[in-house]
Amino acid sequence: MILVACSAPPVTAAPKRTYAAVKLLSQFTIPRTNFKDLTISELSGLAWDQDEQLLYAVSDQGRIFHFKLKLDHEQITAVEPVFAATLVDNKGKPIKLRDSEGLFALNANNRKKGDTQLIVSFEHGPRIYRMSPQGRQVGVVPLHQDLQNPKAYRSQNSMLESVAYHPKYGFLTAPERSLKGEPDNLQTIYSTKQKWSFLAYPAENSSVTGLEILPDKSLLVLERAWAGILHPMVISLRRVDLEACGKAKVCEVQDLGVYSSLIQVDNFEGLTQIRDNLYLMVSDDGERELLRTQLSLFKVE
């Protein structure tokens, strides 16, 4: 990928400038292999469990994987699969309309083992489930009223790609693109009862594919823009401070890192915090021979 210069769009409310840029530290390609009779492919959501020292990933095909992640001086040196299963409902039956996209781990850094719970968002439905680390549904996360009707979305493939948990606002999610009737260049983050909007990165079809929380409790947003093979893939990592939005209809957004390439197309969709300002993101290979499952380790400086 190539880092390109970018400028922030017009804004109406200013967050604290506590972060300035993204520094890419290391990359690692996970081979497309079978583990426990399931193919490691189409990974679209990541979550790091500090207590268990495990990296969780969900695939578009409704599968959960556990990996042992080895870092040495902020370099990824090994990623080893140790568990794989198909996501099932609370009766143990495979979840229909699987298309699992977003992932977040609760109770993953409280110095207690055995109490981790995974939050998984599904593009079709739309819906967000509470699940065990082994992939069994244990509950449901209620959606904001604007997100409950599937017909409100621009398409079946522009629903809930991302999910995170904020210590003040609770569960957060975002449709890939704005809902019908809203401006095409607007992105909106939803909690169960609130919502915050900001201008999308100014690249055609820029979509929200990942959410995480920064150490200062502002939001790290991953956007992906793709407009066909004659156009570069554009990946942007952006910061939105929900506390600074106030009553502004459009929150300020700060561009921390923008990556673009015509040659190497990595469709980054998953995002997780490893510790402090250290993060990891993953690309979805789409089960295509020319694409790859790429892990990228970076710091928000």
Describe this structure in words.
There is one protein chain. This protein has one helix at residues 242-245; strands spanning 2-3, 22-30, 34-35, 38-39, 43-49, 54-59, 63-71, 76-86, 100-106, 117-122, 127-131, 137-140, 160-166, 170-175, 186-190, 195-199, 207-213, 219-225, 233-240, 254-261, 268-275, 278-283, 293-300. The chain has 301 residues and is an all-beta fold. Strands 1-20-19-18-17 form a 5-stranded antiparallel sheet, with no helix packed on it. Strands 2-23-22-21 form a 4-stranded antiparallel sheet, with no helix packed on it. Strands 5-6-7-8 form a 4-stranded antiparallel sheet, with no helix packed on it. The longest helix has 4 residues, at 242-245. Mean pLDDT is 90; it is low at 1-15.
Strand content: over 45%
Output the strand order for the largest sheet: 1-20-19-18-17
General form: globular
Distance from first to last alpha carbon = 19 Å
Q: Helix coverage percent of residues?
A: under 10%
Total number of β-strand segments? 23
Q: Write down the Rg.
A: 18 Å
Return the structural class.
mainly beta
Largest sheet: 5 strands, antiparallel
| Mean of all residue-level pLDDT scores | 90
Instruction: Enumerate the spans where pLDDT stays under 50 for 5 or more consecutive residues.
Output: 1-15
The tally of helices reads 1
Topology as a string of helices (H) and strands (E): EEEEEEEEEEEEEEEEEEEHEEEE
List the helices and strands and how they pair.
Elements: E1 2-3, E2 22-30, E3 34-35, E4 38-39, E5 43-49, E6 54-59, E7 63-71, E8 76-86, E9 100-106, E10 117-122, E11 127-131, E12 137-140, E13 160-166, E14 170-175, E15 186-190, E16 195-199, E17 207-213, E18 219-225, E19 233-240, H1 242-245, E20 254-261, E21 268-275, E22 278-283, E23 293-300
Antiparallel strand pairs: 1-20, 2-23, 3-4, 5-6, 6-7, 7-8, 9-10, 10-11, 11-12, 13-14, 15-16, 17-18, 18-19, 19-20, 21-22, 22-23
